Every structure is written in C-alpha cells, then in structure tokens.
C-alpha cells in the first residue's frame, strides 16, 4: 500500500506535510532517525503511521504525563483502541492487565521513570518493539532548554530492550543538543532530517517600551484590538494572575490565567475552556502549552522575555497551527532580564539544599522549600557525583562547581536572547541562524525589522456572546435535555 | 479567607502545635502525627481541604493575623488567639456555612474520586443526549473504566433524565448559592465547567470560599447517596464502592493485619524490617482510627487512668507536659496511645 493511501485511510490527510514522508520512509527502513520539524509540524504522524505498517509495538517516551495523555486521547478519539499510557497513576488492576497483555498494544506511551522500573522493563523485554520513539528529545541534553535528567538513562534502556530502531523527535535543538541526543541514545548510522525551525505564517514583532506600565498598556491594546484566541506568556505565576485580573478589570471578556501552582482540575478546566473557544485569552507561564493542541491561536504575546531562544521558538510556535496568519509579539522594558535571571537562578539548587540533601536525603522536602526543577537537578547532580567523588565535602564542592557552570551557561543563553531583541537584523533570520540554518524565503509578513503592517491582524470580529447562565435549574435542564428528541 | 481558616485551626490547637502542623493538616499529609492531630483537636473537617496551599501563603496569612493583633506568639511558630481574634473567629464562623457538611478526613481523596465519576458521567450523558463528540474533562483511567462499565447497555436518555432528577432533588435541598456553585462546576455539552475563580468573580466572593462550599456540597451529596439508595439510585451507584470504613496509611494497615494475627510490636518490627518506633507509630494511628481496637494490651489500666487524669487537669494535649506530670515510668508511647483513643471517643 502506498504511504499516501495509508495516511488518508488512517489519519484522513491527503498529503504529507514537509518532511513527514522522508522521515517515515527511513523509519520503515529501520534506520535510526533524528528528526527536527518545526513546532506544530506534525511530529506524531512520523511514528504513528509506522505503527500501522510495522509489526510489533511502538514505544514512545515522552517528558510529561499530560503530554502523553493528550496523545493517547487523540488516538482514542480517532478510534485507536490499542494504545496505552504507562505512568505511575495507572490503577493496579489496569496495570496487571497491561503487564499481561503488553504485546496487544500498538502504541505504548511511557514516562522515563516507568521505564526504570524492573517490572515494566521485564515486560517490555518480552514483547517485540518495532520502534523506540523519544519525543521532545532535546530534554536529553543538559544543554537543552528543558533538561530532564531521567532522559539520560534512555540510551541504556534502549540497549536493554535489544536496541530497537530509534526515532528522536524535536522542534528545537541546536547542533550541540543534536549531538548530545545522538550520543546519549547511541544512534548508529543516524539519518538526520533537519527542517527549518521557521514558521512562515507567524509574523514576529519585538517592542521595547519605557516602563512596565507601558507594557501593560500595550497588552491591553492588543487584547482589545487583535483577533483572538490569544496567549500571553509571563515568567512568573504571580504575573499571570496580575495580567488576567487587570485585563478583566478593563472589560476584556473570556480571560483566565494558567500556571503550575493551580490544582490540576482547575488547570484542566482552563485548558478545555480555551480549546473549546470559551476563553479568548489565557495568561500563562510556560507550564501551559506542551500538548495543548489548539489550531486557531492567532497571537502569542510575551510579557517577559523568555530565558532563551529555544523556549521562545517553542512558545511562539503555539500560534497558527492551522497555517493561517498569526502574530508573535514580544514586549521588553529595561531591566526585564534581571528579573528573568533571578527566576532562572531560583531554579538551581542552593548550597543549603545541597547540604541538607546530603545529610537527610529525601526528607529535605519538608525542611526547606524546594521546587520541582531544583529537585530534579539536585537528584541528578548528587547521583552523578556519588559515583565519582569520595567524601561528602568533595561531592558538595563538585556540585557547587556544576551549579556555577550552569548559572554561567544560563546567563549566556539569556544574553543571546537579549541580543536578539537589539540586533538591527531581521528577527526571522536571527532565529534561523541561531539553529545554524539559513532562511530560504521571507514571507510577506516577516517581522518589524523588515516591514510589515499590523493592519491585517487588527480587525477583531465580534465575539459570540458567552452562553448566559440562567440559574441552576435551567442549567441542569439544558445539560440533560435535547429538545430535538422531545 | 485563608487567614480565618488559619485562625480557626490555631484556636483549636491552642498554642500546642506550630504553623507547620496547620500546614500538614490543611494539605492533608497522611502521617500518623497529622491524622492524630486532626482527631485530638477535632479538626477532622478541615483535614486536606486545601491541598495546593504553600507554606509561604500560610506564613503570610499568619503575618496578617499578627498584624491585626488577632493572635500572639507563645512559642516559636505557635500562636494563641487574642480576645479580638476570638471575636473575629466567632463572627466569621456564623457565616461559614460550608462547615455544616464539610468532613475532610472522612472523605479525603474519596470525594475526588466521587467527583471524577459523577462529573464524567454527567459530561458523557449530556454529550450523548446532544449527540456530540467530546474530550473527557478528567484524565483518570480508573474513572474512565468505571463510567464505561456503568453506562454500558443503558439507555442514555432515560439515564440522563433520572440523573437530572436526582441532582435536582439534591440541589433543591441546598441554598441557591450552593446549588449554583455545584452546577457551574459541572462540565456538559457546549459548556466546560467553570473554575473556582470564575465562579467567585460571578458571585463576587472568594475563590477559596467557592472551593470549600463546593466540597461541602459534595460531602453532603455523598452522605445522602450513601444512606438513601432508594431515593438516589444513580448517585448511590457512584459512591457505593468508594467509601471505606477506616482510613489508615498503607503501612499502618499492614501492621494492623499482623496485630490481628497476634504478633507483638517487636515481632512485627523484625518481620517488616522496620524500627520498633515506626510500628509504635502505626499502633497509635490504629488506635485513633479503628473504633474497636483495644489499647489494653499496650497500656495498663492504672497508667491509662493517670494519663487521662493529667491531661484533663492540665487541659493539655502536649506530650511533654503530661509526661512531666505522670512520671517517667509511663512512656511517651503509652501517653500517645491513650490520647489517641480518648480523641477518638470524644470526637465520635
């Protein structure tokens, strides 16, 4: 069967998107593949389609449980029943059943932690794994923008599973990171498919203003004039709340905030409201986005500058997945980088945390505040040093040095991000060259270094009125009653 | 709102527990100590009702109370209420309608499972009735499985009607505000449920107030669903296999099973490769939670009497003070056991 025919029958698309077919052909030829596709470029098709051609199961490793669940949900909506997500939340009974029938599943999504469990390793070893997929593969590199120490063990795990062919996918990896991926996963004779990070339908604008107040005024202006749905990224949880309240107070309807400090159900509600167009605008931290598959996001505003260009490219990439013209606006005011820097450094373990961890182990969590990122890094560093250093003092000293090195690296990344704002060159070209690529063609709406007019984006159509709430009795009736059937 | 909740806890703790204990209590830490605290000080209802609370927020609320001069510090991070604080608390309690049915300890985590099932059933039925595809609002495999099994081979229209009637009956017995909060949280055809924040903005109140009222409604609903299977057949089905008779930590549960088999503390410690201290913690937890568990094998009647007498006379639950009063021949373990049992009987 032709691949195109398979594509249409399984996914309903007539044609492949850029690069998909070439990647799939290499995957089907059982080569190790490293693929870099632009954000929203249809990475999942690259392993899902082979899942229907190859015999055996496709194992997909993904950094976030929520990302995994989104993917599983989407497959199930398409009618695929032979799919499962392995994570620590799996109820016992289903776990037992899954362990006994693992070969039954066409797609097995797994978190890196689960893959370290001997129980699952044993079960996975007994089945035929046709493809080992690492999604968001830049998480492997400690120089990637979302380093997950657990990903480092994937190379060993892959070997344990008998070295099935591997497909590593990412949207944002510089050359160094790509080399890290190849090395860690021990890819051999790797076929690299590197497509441009550029998203031609996203126009890029950078604005430097004089004060925070002016930034707020700009945000308000955009919220009032730009066609939604839109997203506003801020670097702290508190700012997302401030922005949402401010916009609401100014009469903007359908605004909410989203950040990692909210309880999971509240987060889910905001995400779903946004997906269903019940919200026009979400003010969020970078906790929002991964796995949010919304096609019609028309603009992304950055209220603060991201800590590095990789993160910026990921975040603006949530816009215009439907291919229609979209807009990315970054607002900057003097001193923003200091705030971002202190936030970045708050993600590194402190000396106190290192000492307490060495003395008390996991109990440290009830002794001092320690966030998720600090915790991951601390674990990783201690584990790494313990195999090398002899005394506790030596370990602590080495970790301090590693933290300093990381701080230094992060600062230079931030400097690069900042210089992106101030270089007098085309913004799009800067992004592309940061990833050691060349821009083939400039779109008509490029960036505000080149010329483009916001006019075509400013028109805001009348939003449909939000469904009114007419009291609980009416609402209950509406839920369970369909007039067509009465 | 958080500061009042804190005020309430501090009042019950009466200077005998630190801010950390309040934090563990509100976030629902499943340690023997916190479980016992909630019983001794009769704070069961607020156990685990604010799981996303951070220590920083709580400290800020305490600062606020200090500034208002509603509390004074008695020890490092321990506080008692001033007269003004007591008055403020009294005033607030009159408006705290959500305390009526709220029982965090009894329904801890079960309420979440109940809500998952109920709201996913509502979402599914509503979309089935309107013939619409949807994305489940919860990501919880066990709940998916339950809803799937439950809806299998049932007529969705009839079931939707019946569930509507049950929810209508429940809501009719609530205040307008409570019924509104509950309904707005539900996700259905063409409307994703609202967040606490959105409901609070609409009702011009505090998000935490919305959250607690919502939980209070759930607990009320669960209680009725459990007791009145005839009146609420669907809701009863949702809850019937969720309620457990006793809540013990997993490890304490295992110790309990060995105790039933007649093993001693030292033997269990050896079998389970745990310290005898840990097993003692378990025994205290069991005493606090299992009504017909007798502490007689562990504490002599004479010692028990002395401990009760000292605790009553000194009006304290502080182990150190009681130990000083009863003398060294009685161990901390014995004191904790007796207090756990006493807390259990006075609370029930």
UniProtKB/TrEMBL annotation, chain A:
Keywords: ATP-binding, DNA-binding, Helicase, Hydrolase, Nucleotide-binding. GO terms for cellular component: bacterial nucleoid; cytoplasm; replisome. It holds the Pfam family RecQ_Zn_bind. GO terms for molecular function: 3'-5' DNA helicase activity; ATP binding; DNA binding; four-way junction helicase activity; hydrolase activity. It comes from the Bacteria. Transmembrane segments: none annotated. Residues 24-191 form the Helicase ATP-binding domain. Residues 218-362 form the Helicase C-terminal domain. GO terms for biological process: DNA recombination; DNA repair. NCBIfam families: recQ_fam. PANTHER family: ATP-DEPENDENT DNA HELICASE RECS-RELATED (PTHR13710:SF84), DNA HELICASE RECQ FAMILY MEMBER (PTHR13710). This is ATP-dependent DNA helicase RecQ.
UniProtKB/TrEMBL annotation, chain B:
Keywords: Transcription, Transcription regulation. GO terms for molecular function: DNA binding. Pfam families: HTH_40. Residues 251-339 form the Helicase Helix-turn-helix domain. GO terms for biological process: regulation of DNA-templated transcription. This is Uncharacterized protein YpbB. It comes from Anoxybacteroides voinovskiense.
């Amino acid at each position: 069967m032709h691949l195109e025919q398979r594509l249409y029958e399984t996914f309903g698309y007539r044609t492949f998107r850029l690069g998909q077919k070439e990647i799939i052909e290499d995957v089907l030829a059982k080569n190790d593949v490293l693929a870099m596709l632009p954000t929203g470029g249809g990475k999942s098709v690259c392993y899902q389609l082979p899942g229907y051609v190859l015999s055996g199961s496709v194992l997909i490793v993904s950094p976030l449980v929520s990302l995994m669940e989104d993917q599983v949900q989407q497959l199930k909506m398409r009618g695929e029943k032979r799919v499962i997500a392995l994570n620590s939340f799996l109820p016992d009974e289903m776990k037992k059943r899954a362990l006994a029938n693992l070969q039954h599943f066409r797609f097995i999504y797994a978190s890196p932690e689960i893959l370290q469990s001997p129980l699952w390793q044993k079960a996975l070893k007994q089945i035929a794994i046709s493809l080992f997929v690492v999604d968001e593969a830049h998480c492997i590199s400690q120089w990637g923008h979302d380093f997950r120490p657990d990903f480092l063990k994937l190379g060993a795990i892959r070997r344990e599973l008998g070295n099935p062919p591997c497909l590593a996918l990412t949207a944002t990896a510089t050359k160094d990171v790509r080399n890290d991926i190849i090395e860690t996963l021990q890819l051999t004779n790797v076929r690299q498919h590197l497509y441009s990070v550029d998203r031609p339908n996203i126009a890029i604008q950078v604005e430097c203003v004089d004060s925070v107040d002016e930034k707020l005024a700009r945000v308000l202006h955009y919220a009032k004039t730009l066609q939604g749905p839109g997203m506003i990224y801020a670097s702290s949880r508190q700012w997302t709340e401030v922005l949402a309240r401010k916009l609401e107070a100014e009469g903007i309807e359908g605004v909410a905030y989203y950040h990692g400090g909210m309880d999971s159900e509240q987060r889910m509600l905001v995400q779903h409201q946004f997906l269903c167009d019940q919200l026009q605008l979400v003010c969020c931290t970078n906790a929002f986005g991964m796995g949010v598959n919304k096609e019609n996001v028309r603009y992304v505003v950055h209220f603060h500058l991201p800590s590095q260009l990789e993160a910026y490219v990921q975040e603006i990439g949530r816009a215009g997945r439907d291919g229609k013209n979209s807009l990315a606006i970054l607002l900057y005011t003097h001193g923003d980088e200091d705030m971002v820097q202190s936030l970045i450094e708050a993600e590194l373990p402190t000396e106190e945390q290192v000492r307490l961890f060495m003395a008390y182990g996991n109990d440290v969590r009830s002794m001092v505040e320690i966030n998720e990122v600090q915790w991951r890094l601390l674990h990783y560093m201690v584990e790494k040093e313990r195999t090398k250093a002899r005394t506790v003092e030596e370990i602590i000293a080495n970790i301090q040095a590693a933290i300093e090195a990381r701080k230094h690296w992060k600062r230079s990344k931030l400097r690069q991000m900042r210089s992106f704002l101030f270089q007098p060159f085309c913004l799009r070209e800067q992004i592309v060259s940061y990833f050691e690529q060349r821009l083939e063609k400039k779109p008509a709406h490029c960036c505000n270094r080149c010329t483009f007019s916001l006019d075509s984006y400013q028109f805001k159509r009348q939003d449909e009125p939000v469904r009114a709430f007419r009291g609980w009795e009416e609402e209950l009736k509406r839920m369970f009653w369909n007039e067509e059937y009465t | 709102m958080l500061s009042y909740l804190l005020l309430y806890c501090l009042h019950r703790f009466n200077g005998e527990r630190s801010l950390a204990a309040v934090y563990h209590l509100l976030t629902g830490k499943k340690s023997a100590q916190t479980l016992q605290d909630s019983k001794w000080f009769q704070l069961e209802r607020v156990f685990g009702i604010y799981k996303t609370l951070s220590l920083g927020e709580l400290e800020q609320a305490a600062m606020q109370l200090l500034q208002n001069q509603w509390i004074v510090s008695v020890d490092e991070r321990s506080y008692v209420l001033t007269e003004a604080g007591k008055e403020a608390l009294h005033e607030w309690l009159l408006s705290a309608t959500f305390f009526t049915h709220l029982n965090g300890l009894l329904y801890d985590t079960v309420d979440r499972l109940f809500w998952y099932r109920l709201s996913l059933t509502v979402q599914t039925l509503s979309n089935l009735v309107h013939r619409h595809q949807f994305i489940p609002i919860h990501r919880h495999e066990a709940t998916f499985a339950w809803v799937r099994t439950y809806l299998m081979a049932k007529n969705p229209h009839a079931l939707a009607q019946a569930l509507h009637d049950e929810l209508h009956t429940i809501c009719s017995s609530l205040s307008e505000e409570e019924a509104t909060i509950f309904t707005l949280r539900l996700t259905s055809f063409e409307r994703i449920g609202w967040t606490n924040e959105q409901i609070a903005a609409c009702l011009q109140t505090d998000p935490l107030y919305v959250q607690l009222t919502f939980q209070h409604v759930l607990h009320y609903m669960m209680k009725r669903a459990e007791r009145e299977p005839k009146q609420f057949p669907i809701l009863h089905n949702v809850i019937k296999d969720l309620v457990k008779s006793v809540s013990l930590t997993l490890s304490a549960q295992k110790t309990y099973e060995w105790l039933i088999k007649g093993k001693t503390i030292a033997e269990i410690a050896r079998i389970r490769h745990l310290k005898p201290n840990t097993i003692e913690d378990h025994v205290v937890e069991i005493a606090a939670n299992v009504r017909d568990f007798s502490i007689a094998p562990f504490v002599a009647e004479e010692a028990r009497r002395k401990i009760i007498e000292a605790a009553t006379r000194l009006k304290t639950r502080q182990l150190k003070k009681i130990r000083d009063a009863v003398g060294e021949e009685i161990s901390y373990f014995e004191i904790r056991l007796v207090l756990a049992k006493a807390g259990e009987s006075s609370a029930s």
